[in-house]
């Protein structure tokens, strides 16, 4: 049975880097999309995923399937619905803003000019509707409008809301130090509890504040009163100081108090911890499904042998591995690339026993090695040596009656053997394969292949080729009665009567 402790005990450095890296990515998403609707949707997706994992653990197949589909569809909708917010974040001026800056984005605007212009419009009793955007994108909310891109000034705002100007009835959208659009049409509030003196401007301002985080300044054409719509509320403005303070808060350029800085720091720490815990829970969900078992064969490979060293008497060329892990991780294993690698660096010559463990196998993080069969691999390490040995003929059978073999010569007469030092030391002669005598009738030559030394499968011949045996046959009673000093030398050499010597 696998416990969280056993999984933690099997952690590799790749697992730690994986968790830290993804935790930081999640934390950066919080930093970039905080105070926007995107963050709220991301939190909702995370909760859906947790519910889906709980449903899986409880065996609720239908609920798990439904939640998985909803989560996937919601993730796709984020890209479609919030594409403008995502684009605004990715259009940062430098990489610092995206990768490691934690300070909130600053949105500068000439607050003094706006306040002065608003109260001048109030004094003249000219209706006005000025939108100061927040973090939410207004592209899909504010309809129509005419691109303006004029630098904000008191004269500019007074001319836009001059009663004879065709665009004075619409809203002016402020972006930084410029007026981006004029004559914008805002969504009207559908609330039924609004005062009767609220006109179209007030309903439009309230309607936009209900669906975005924008701040909308309204100036009444009838009374000249200044009001601000924010977060679905209409706030009467008593003086220019109040309006100035609210604009600074909207633009995020107010100086934070020590308490506010401490609260912000605690929020960041909490977000970092939540991101890490969430990623760890995902990691555990992948590594916890340990009921999935698989058995694979992996070839044994030796690495970093000393120069000239070769491997002899290998006990196993492959081992059988029993692996466990989540189905996702098990499916990621390519059996063709699975290897058991044994490092020979510093291993002495002679007989060695190697214990196979997870360190010898490259497995995906989270996959556990349950059993290895065989658990050890034995091999002999030695430096091959060369030795030149004489060749002898291995005769078989009997010569026909009345014929005897008086001479045999092998070309070439020697062969080079290569093999382990102790194996080569015990061999003094190389024999040919069996050469039958039964069909020999007259002197001549015959080809024969060299035979491998008995009980020495690791010894090779160089070059491995055929030899030519030149032999001389004479009738019995002729030259056979005279001793020939070049008489045949060989294994099982025939006797003068046709038998073996």
CATH class placement of the largest domain: Alpha Beta
CATH architecture of the largest domain: 3-Layer(aba) Sandwich
Strand order in the sheet with the most strands? 2-4-3-1-5-6-7
Helix proportion range: 25-40%
Q: Output the number of helix runs.
A: 13
The strand count comes to 22
Q: How much strand?
A: 25-35%
Distance between the termini: 73 Å
Q: How would you state the average pLDDT, rounded?
A: 81
Uncertain segments = 480-489, 495-501
The backbone outline, from C-alpha atoms, is rod-shaped
Within CATH, the superfamily of the largest domain carries the name DNA integrity scanning protein, DisA, N-terminal domain
Q: SS-based structural class?
A: alpha+beta
- CATH fold-level topology of the largest domain: YojJ-like (1
Question: Over the alpha carbons, how many angstroms does the gyration radius reach?
Answer: 46 Å
Number of domains: 4
Main beta sheet, described? 7 strands, mixed
Compact overview of the structure:
With 501 residues, the protein is an alpha+beta fold.
Topology, pairings included?
Elements: H1 4-9, H2 13-33, H3 37-57, H4 61-81, H5 83-90, H6 95-99, H7 111-124, E1 128-132, E2 143-151, H8 154-160, E3 171-175, E4 178-185, H9 200-211, E5 215-219, E6 226-230, E7 233-236, H10 240-251, H11 258-287, E8 292-303, E9 310-312, E10 318-325, H12 327-331, E11 340-343, E12 350-355, E13 368-373, E14 376-382, E15 385-396, E16 403-411, E17 414-419, H13 421-425, E18 430-436, E19 444-449, E20 460-462, E21 466-475, E22 490-491
Parallel strand pairs: 1-3, 8-11, 15-18, 15-22
Antiparallel strand pairs: 1-5, 2-4, 3-4, 5-6, 6-7, 8-10, 9-14, 10-13, 12-14, 15-17, 16-21, 17-20, 19-21
Helix pairs in contact: 2-11, 3-4, 7-8, 7-10
